[in-house]
Specification:
This protein has 330 residues and is mainly α. It has 15 helices and 2 strands. The chain is globular, with a radius of gyration of 20 Å.
């Protein structure tokens, strides 16, 4: 009886529904283009969408407390441009140090945003909109008004995205490690549970002894950290650093979370859901050119598919919730 209950719970979950959608998408794309479902093709898809997949974890934390952060790609550009220029002029070299610097810049940016939101009670959309312009402008200043760093200027740092470990691209390893860490953190760590509690009911969380302001500061700092990591990955994957990197890309990060079932009002969402949402988004981006969709029409088609996936997901989830409620009443 208990086994049947567990199976019903899994089948009725949002994550299971997302997995079904992914399977259908894979089948449709493979039918149209058999080369899609090959190890190299899938590896390239994940590598090219690594930045969105990694930053979606930070957006999950922010959205769980009922916030939003549209400054993330500006933070990415600032951190990526910073290490790009440092590498170009020989101030740093190698692989590890650029990653550390990019992450540190990202954390600093996220910390400043978090302080404004948590201490000054500025609405997240307003605060992050302001910093979106500030950080992007700082990226241009660092680039000396538009200068960029190409592959030749990046030295061995660009090799990170083309090298492998145990037969798997290192960029994909970064994705795997990030998702494993966040899965454990959000599911079993006390702080992870506090993030859910603040998003579900901030006043009740405050009464129960949770410092709501510190939790909000933490999630925006985490977001900044992953945006900085995204900046380093962006530079390595595309072997270039430009001040307009990932311009508008914050919408893809938010879309990955929404598709994955993260509530815009906070308190609901999971790491597995965000992973599946990111894979759906990556599959769409990979599939459209393969099936011959014109470049000018790709954004429109992508938007329509995202809307359909979200609507279908919500409808199926409501049906599953109603069935679960009826089952409890019986």
């Amino acid at each position: 009886m208990k086994k049947n209950s567990t199976v019903k719970k899994i089948v009725g979950s949002r994550e299971f529904l997302l997995a079904v959608i992914i399977a259908i998408l894979f089948a449709l794309v493979t039918f149209k283009s058999p080369s899609f479902l090959t190890p190299k093709s899938l590896s390239d898809m994940l590598k090219n969408n690594a930045v969105t997949m990694v930053m979606a974890l930070g957006m999950l934390c922010v959205m769980l407390v009922g916030g939003i952060d549209i400054s993330i790609t500006s933070t990415l550009a600032l951190s990526g441009m910073s290490i790009g220029m440092l590498l170009k002029y020989g101030h740093i070299s190698g692989i590890i140090l650029p990653f550390i610097i990019a992450i540190a810049i990202g954390i600093a940016c996220g910390l400043i945003v978090g302080l404004i939101i948590s201490r000054a009670d500025v609405p997240p959309i307003i605060a992050t909109m302001g910093f979106m312009y500030i950080y992007r402008a700082m990226g241009y200043l660092i680039s000396n008004g538009g200068e960029w760093a190409g592959a030749a200027a990046l030295g061995t740092f660009k090799d990170f995205a083309t090298s492998t470990f145990l037969g798997i691209n290192k960029v994909i390893w970064v994705i795997i490690v990030c998702y494993v860490i966040f899965f454990v953190f959000m599911k079993w760590a006390r702080t992870g549970r506090k993030i859910y509690a603040v998003g579900s009911n901030a006043e009740a969380a405050q009464v129960s002894g949770i410092n709501v302001r510190n939790i909000k500061l933490l999630v925006f700092s985490i977001m900044g950290c992953l945006a900085g990591l995204g900046g380093a990955l962006q530079v390595s994957v595309y072997a270039s650093a430009m001040p307009d990197m990932q311009y508008g890309g914050e919408m893809d990060v938010i879309a990955a979370c929404v598709i994955g079932g993260v509530s815009m009002s906070g308190g609901r969402g999971s790491v597995v859901g965000v992973l599946f949402g990111s894979i759906i988004l990556a599959t769409i981006a990979k599939a459209l050119p393969l099936v011959g969709i014109d470049a000018l029409a790709q954004n429109m088609v992508k938007g329509i598919i995202i809307l359909v996936v979200v609507v279908v997901n919500v409808i199926l989830q409501r049906i599953a919730d109603n069935n679960a409620l009826k089952g409890r009443e019986m």
